[in-house]
Structure formats: structure tokens, C-alpha cells
Amino acid sequence: MRFKLIVVGVCMLTFMGCSDEATTEEKKVLPTKTSSEVKTSEEVKVSKKDNESESSDEMEILENRQKKIALENTLTEEGLKSTHTALLQELQKLKWDKEILSEKFELQRMEDEKKAYEEEKKYDKERKEQEQLLSKLAYKANLAEIEAKQLLNEIELERAAIEFKQVKLDSELAFLKSKKTREVYITEKVTYLDNPLSEDNQTLTISDRRVELNGMITAEMALSISKQINYFNNKDHKKPIFLVIDRSEGGAVMAGNLILRTIDSSEAPVYVVLKSLAASMAAVIVTLAEKSYAYPHAILLHHQAMTYHYNEMTNLTEEREQYETLEEVWNIFGLPVAKKMNLTSEEFIKQMYAHSSKGNWQEFAIEAQKLKWVNNIVLRIIDKSVRVDPMHKEEGETEVESYDNPYAISKELIDKEGKPFMYLPRLSPADSYLIYNPDGYYRMR
């Protein structure tokens, strides 16, 4: 196609060149043919200048000559056209082909533009759809976020309401605990009496300056009792201190001696109070105390000092040494008791065996007072030291079963014969049971 266009262009240029040459030749020929006429015209113009009076006939002649020349030129041109008709037709065909190609190119361009427009339109449509989808998704996301925030707000409100209820419940529980605590603990101020014994000598009032002595007297117990007595002395050296014995079978001599020496050293008066049983070293403490008080039927028990060999063989010298040690112990604790009774050591020991084959002389306090084992008998003991409900238990606190615990009764058991029974707690010395037990349900270990 490009080759054809080039050929057509060359032909057109050739044709145009030929036409120009023909036209140039014609132009050159025409002056040749009319040179005389042209000169005549010039002469006429000169003559016109020279003579302005020439007539218009001469102008007319010139015009006719010019017309004739133009006609001749036209005829010459027409002749040339007829000569080159084939070339003109070819040229026309080339122009038409050119126009056709231009139209095709234009049509193709329009189709391309249309296709591009449609694609762009399709792209715009897809882009708009995507934008709409994104907008819709954004709207949904925004809506979901709002709903989530609303839900969180509702949850926060519910949580706040629950926390408020919890705080309210905690407050009510704390109030109830506080109320219960107030019921458990006595907050009333304790009144300290200089003379805790009533005027009729039958009632003793114990304050919270109270020290307990219960169970086996050990070095650890003696140290604790000594510290408590010293504490109350340092706090107030005038108000009475109460050493209360509910039940004690006695114990270590040296521990008992520490308790006695602490009582003697106390500036504040120490009242030794017996409620149930004081045997051996505990009985010595009650008897040797300056101020001692007991219930009428509390029991006091005295006996000689004893020792154990722990199944070991001893020789005569060792036996003599141990005997001498026991005599020294008896002189320290037994002899003062005998002197208080206005007896000699031998008389006191003799009476022990007169009252018991084993030498364990026990008496109720009402009789022991006559023997000077206890100074005073009281019918009532008002214990102001009990400031906490004794049945109250702290969280996690459990009651331990023990023979020393009066409430520690065993669970029901089944014997070999299939009979149910229950073990009774261990009795303390000088104690006994008064219980109706016809079928032997309650048994001793």
C-alpha cells in the first residue's frame, strides 16, 4: 500500500511538472505571438500619454485582443487536458483511493475509540460498582462498629450494675460481719477492781488481766505464764492479776518453781484461782500462793516427789544420789506446805498414806481450806476476761480431737460383734463419770 501511494505521488508530481512546463511554454509562446500587439499597445499607451485625446476605439481593440489571447490560452489548456485525460483519471482514482483509505483509517480510529470508550465505560462501571461495594462495606463496618460500641456500652452498664450489686452485697456482708463481730467481741470497757472479792466473800470477779494454767506444767508453759504476769505488772503494778487453773495434773518441778518465783516477785497482787483440779505441782502453787481461791468442790491433791528410772539399771550410789535429790525437792516444795499446815515433814507424809494407800492425798476445796491448802472458798466466779464468744471460730479453724478436750467424743464405731459403741474422752486424775449406760454403748479406751 505504501508503495502504491509513493507511485501515485510520483505520477502526480510528474503530471504537475508536465502541466507547469506546458503552461510555461504556452506563456512563452503567447508573448511571441502577440509581441507586435503588445508593442502596439505600448505605443498606444505612449501615444495616449502623448495624446490624451485618442478615442476609445483603440481601448476596445486592446480589450478584444486580450480576450482573444485568453481564449487561445483556454483552448490550449483544454487541449492539454484532453491529452492528459488518462493521467487525470488515474489521479482521480488515486485521490479516491486515498479518500477511501482515509475513511477506512478514520473508521478504524472511530472503532478503536469506540472500543476504548466502551472499555473505559466498562471500567468506570466496574470502578463505580467497586466504589459502591466499598461504600456499602464501609457503611456496614461503620454500622457494625456502632453496634459493637453500643454492645460494649451495654456490657459496661451491665458490668457496672453487677459491680454495684457486688459492692452493695459486699457492703451488706461487711456490715453483717461487723455486726456479727460486734456480737462476738465485747467492746464494753473492763472495770478493774482493787479488791475483786465481794463483801460477803462468796463472789470473785476476774478481769481481763487473766493468765491460764491448764494441763501439764512444762518449761514452755512456765515461761509463757511468767511473761504474761510481767506484762500485766509493767502495764499496771497495782491492779490484781489472776492465775486461773481449770485443771492441771501438775508437771515439772523447775517449771513450777519459775511460776512460784514470778508470783512472789510481782508487785501487783496475784490471785490464784482453782476451778476444777490442781494436783501435785499445781496443788503446791495453789497452797503456797498468798491469795488463793477455789470452788467448794474443786479437788486438790498432794503427794511425795517421784522419779522414774526409765527401765535402766542403777547402782547403790546412784540410788542414794537420786534419793538426796528427791529430799531436796521435797524440802523446797513439800516442807513449806507442811509448815503451812503446822505439820512436820514426817507428819505430812504419814497423813498422805493415811488417806491413800499410794500416798495421793486428795481433798475437796471445802475440806482443803481447813488444811490450809487453799485460803478462800467462793461460790461464784464472775469472769470478765471472756471478751470473745467461745463458740466463735475463725475461718479455717477446726476443732482438734484430743483426750484433753472435753468435747472430743469419738465418732460412733462398730465392734467385732457388730454392736455400735462410742469411746468416752479420757478422764483427768481424781475424776469419774456419772452416766447412765445400761447397754454399754459408752466405753473407755
Automatic annotation (TrEMBL):
GO terms for molecular function: ATP-dependent peptidase activity; ATPase binding; serine-type endopeptidase activity. It comes from the Bacteria. Residues 39-52 have a biased composition (Basic and acidic residues). Residues 100-161 form a coiled coil. GO terms for biological process: protein quality control for misfolded or incompletely synthesized proteins. Residues 32-59 are annotated as: Disordered. The keyword Translocase does not apply. The keyword Ligase does not apply. It holds the Pfam family CLP_protease. Keywords: Coiled coil. GO terms for cellular component: endopeptidase Clp complex. This is Peptidase S14. It comes from uncultured Sulfurovum sp.
